Amino acid sequence: MPDGAVAPLGVALVGYGYWGPNLLRNYMELPGVTVRSVCDRRPEVLQKAQTRYPSVTVTVDLADVLADDDVDAVVIATPVRTHFPIAMAALEAGKHVFVEKPITDDSLHARRLVDLAADRSLVLMVGHTFVFSPPVRRVKELIDAGELGDIYFVTTQRVNLGLHQKDVSVIWDLATHDLSILYYWLDEAAETVVVTGRGCVTASIPDVAFVNLRFPSGVIALLDVAWLSPVKLRRTIVVGSDRMLLYDDTEAVEKVKIYDHGVDFKDPQTFGEFQLSYRTGDIVAPKIDMTEPLFSEASHFINCIETGERPITDGYAGLRVVASLESAERSLNNHGGARRITVPRMAVDAGDRA
Amino acid sequence: MPDGAVAPLGVALVGYGYWGPNLLRNYMELPGVTVRSVCDRRPEVLQKAQTRYPSVTVTVDLADVLADDDVDAVVIATPVRTHFPIAMAALEAGKHVFVEKPITDDSLHARRLVDLAADRSLVLMVGHTFVFSPPVRRVKELIDAGELGDIYFVTTQRVNLGLHQKDVSVIWDLATHDLSILYYWLDEAAETVVVTGRGCVTASIPDVAFVNLRFPSGVIALLDVAWLSPVKLRRTIVVGSDRMLLYDDTEAVEKVKIYDHGVDFKDPQTFGEFQLSYRTGDIVAPKIDMTEPLFSEASHFINCIETGERPITDGYAGLRVVASLESAERSLNNHGGARRITVPRMAVDAGDRA
Amino acid sequence: MPDGAVAPLGVALVGYGYWGPNLLRNYMELPGVTVRSVCDRRPEVLQKAQTRYPSVTVTVDLADVLADDDVDAVVIATPVRTHFPIAMAALEAGKHVFVEKPITDDSLHARRLVDLAADRSLVLMVGHTFVFSPPVRRVKELIDAGELGDIYFVTTQRVNLGLHQKDVSVIWDLATHDLSILYYWLDEAAETVVVTGRGCVTASIPDVAFVNLRFPSGVIALLDVAWLSPVKLRRTIVVGSDRMLLYDDTEAVEKVKIYDHGVDFKDPQTFGEFQLSYRTGDIVAPKIDMTEPLFSEASHFINCIETGERPITDGYAGLRVVASLESAERSLNNHGGARRITVPRMAVDAGDRA
Amino acid sequence: MPDGAVAPLGVALVGYGYWGPNLLRNYMELPGVTVRSVCDRRPEVLQKAQTRYPSVTVTVDLADVLADDDVDAVVIATPVRTHFPIAMAALEAGKHVFVEKPITDDSLHARRLVDLAADRSLVLMVGHTFVFSPPVRRVKELIDAGELGDIYFVTTQRVNLGLHQKDVSVIWDLATHDLSILYYWLDEAAETVVVTGRGCVTASIPDVAFVNLRFPSGVIALLDVAWLSPVKLRRTIVVGSDRMLLYDDTEAVEKVKIYDHGVDFKDPQTFGEFQLSYRTGDIVAPKIDMTEPLFSEASHFINCIETGERPITDGYAGLRVVASLESAERSLNNHGGARRITVPRMAVDAGDRA
Question: Which are the contacts of B201, defined by CB distance < 8 A and separation ≥ 6?
Fold first, then answer.
């Protein structure tokens, strides 16, 4: 790693398809960073990158990227099935790695990436971008500050018309977002999952799923995800013992609303009787800043490299989401039976994380 | 049964607590009906009924009601645990019976009421009032007319802050409504149910539950019910192969909105490939009339007595809802395992209904 | 006036039509008050009052009411054109008077009522009920506490489909509410009014009007009132130098929302240049209590009688609203020319009010 | 004018500031059009245009543009005060002219442009872009098809926080849009205008205005425009004798909603009495296509040049909006007095347009 004060950090982008240009734009604007190269198997897309950013080297060969000693970090935005081999190669070449979500399509592969990064003391971060969006962070702050009290449950709707994927279910496509958000908020992963779903348009590819989760702390959660819906919904309700909130990402202004509502216990009048009273108070929509999530995410990656800090969305965060998706998928295919979520583990994590 | 053209139909109301006054008011206004008596164990509430309706006889003794030959039908609005003995006694006395929902708190009891009513050729109807609400009926018409195409799935949210019941879970309190609506719309009962829930305020009484249902036709449904929520929601989404709709009972005007949205298949370009395109068309909020559901319900009961027609919400409809609630409750208490819904049956129903 | 500690205050209601029953119900429930009589010219409506409240004397003759020494106060809910003679007679008989809005249909008449009440030291109050509604009072508190800073302007929409009146324009019917609210909030009456309106359904009766007001303090206001609208709107925006608010009376919960938004000046960089920056902060929907406005209004009337306090909605408040309506009406009929609002006055008021 | 089938139409853009790049992008994409040059007084902005579009000639000298025989049309997006001299020069050089709104800051100047274009048989079009937006066009189609019946009145709110202009009032900034939309819908211009407004933040520059309009047909309209508002509103209500509609440009999906609501007359029961009944029917949000207004506008300009068709937003449309703005401004400064709107005219227009 170069001395931050002297040489800029060298970054290479692998994969310049749908999402890559967004990443490249943000890394180009980061102070203290030089984007050295862009790698893709398709010469025609490389030409677009070259035209827009003449200073960047383009190549179809990953080996070129990995052989460049001035590349400190590799950012991977290729199709999911290729995340694992590219990330492995990059880590083995001593590069820090940022990989788009989901980290892999197999939790055992994710486990291997996590372990290799730990062995080599390299940063491994996954692109759970919502974790860097201002409303999601604001909710995290509220939860951590105890504003909501104990969290009772969370429900979320992420539904709209389209876009059906050809190879993965709506769970891998949409529930990934909600799992990464929930695990971030709650600082824990679900222990069981039960899913009811259906392939409506194409029987073999579920396009609607009701994902029920149960967490070690007792929290329960419902994820309602679908590619079929009359309206676009991005609504999450978090109910705590002291306050409740509504996070609606389709709202232009009032994305987060905090309700000073709850249930209070009164002293029982007689044995065996309980008395409840309902409290409704002010409703506050706090101002949410407008920072672009991708920029915060890229800054965080670079900062972790420079400081050695562990990323909020580290490889382990990616791993437990993938393990949860696998269990959810099995539950769906198994007529909605409850599945225990098991995160593949090894000794190093046993103590501090799992 | 009196000759409808000559004598009015005699009705007695049993139970004059929270709900009874609403029933009484509607039956008093029904043409061709005479409310003969009101029965309740509490003399003080009987006095209120007497003051408001001086023409009605009041009594604390059910036997008085059942002994009155001019009482053709008994309307029961007592606590749930007393539905069964009162309804049994009324049927045995040869009275037609209307009983508030849920029909009983035990499906075997419901089965016995259904069978007895069939044996005696008496009308047995349950107060699934939402089935008589104009927006619910409008949705039924749309489904039956094929406007939505094949139904893919239904999701519903029935959440608000309060009112916690002391003896039953949120499932018995709120999901009862959604089950009666769904079974009416779909003309079928769910075959399996999976529930994740939790008692947040009082650990022993679930106050939030995510109820996943699977129907014989392949339809799946999600019922999100809770006594804890920052906002009051009464929203149902129905997605069909041709159209989709949103039914929001909290809206003053646009309670039902029909979206001419869907997914169209295109001819595959290559073998093994499918092509989808999304269609979004007009959105229509049809005018919904304002008839009071309770009045329609009472009229339907009287009409069934007079014509011998089977009520839309007959005893069997009440029975299958209770059986579903029992299975849902067992799933919730069994860590969310899937439960088959089994409606207790006997020979008479096997052929035509079950 | 009886000693409050000994004898209850005697009240008589004159006019038992559309609104009277609401007033009667509230006065019946007021502690320290006895409703002695109800007066109406129609025997058939008196019978209804008698049946519901057997303790009350009913009469078709106003003289009976005024001759009753135990009647301390008269509450008038008759057609507008009769407000003046009835109120005059009551004041002359030494009774305190509450009269429905508008106080009269002629500002000179209103002036005479105000003067007579002052001469006789009797309470004269007008039923500007919105002034007693919790959200309107909450906004008043915010303004008086300086939370909004200096008020810049107010806009309000009070539109819906129906109900066309046969004898008065939409201005007398709907703008009355907004004028009474505005004058209460701002502690001043408009000095000029400009109206553009039209009789759409019946040319002779304006059913839509845009009422522009200018106040001595510099505040301007827009009242958009109509009996023709695709949607029902009850929305008021108040913009101040420090904060802004939205009061939407059709909202079930968030009736008042306070926006910590504004414009800040920056130090000018060069002479003649100004720099503005926009500030957007938290949005708060304070909890609004649910007290019934009519009950608060009736309590206030009784309290003013007992304490000698001047009513918030005293005769003068009624007078200046009527004077404003007259000027608005003249502007509308005069092709939208600006009209000065002149409140008829006499010496007694000149010093402290006008 | 070149033969459309042989040579492409040559276009030059004058003014490459805030809006120019949007125009340039659209003209670059138009088939049958070649953008030959971009002119601006600032070399640094020209360089940006050159970098993005290397094929285009850039120049600081308008004379270069006008001297180029291959330039058939000039598109003007300079500050308003320069519209007149540049457009005059272009017309005199025989170029067709498209000029951003408002066409000029003086109606006499606009008159001269209209006349010169007529003399020379050149197309003169003004950039009233909203006229080309799909929801505005949809409303126009509904009105023209008679779906709404006779139009009674229109109200519109165009308010939000910011952006205060330093040299023009909110009327010139925002009401321009509403006037151009209204005049397009109604096929007529207002004959009188009354304005109440105020400079809240800076006393000399009105930042809120209530603009009341009266049209020859009897239609009245209200424009509520402000740079100060707690919420952003872009709402227009159109009330007709047969139907009513709501056009809300802030809605993502249901931008236009048509209400089959109205008032029906019944046969009078007695002389002098009228009977009204209110009709509420279905509400329809028709699908609105997503064409970019700027592209439609540019296509229309080119098409008018090629076919000789008169632009929908021709110079005269620009002129009458400017004349209306001038009258509105005078009314505002004259304490809200009513002002007659007089469009400067000469013989040529008297017959067919004015």
Answer: A263, A265, A276, B164, B207, B227, B228
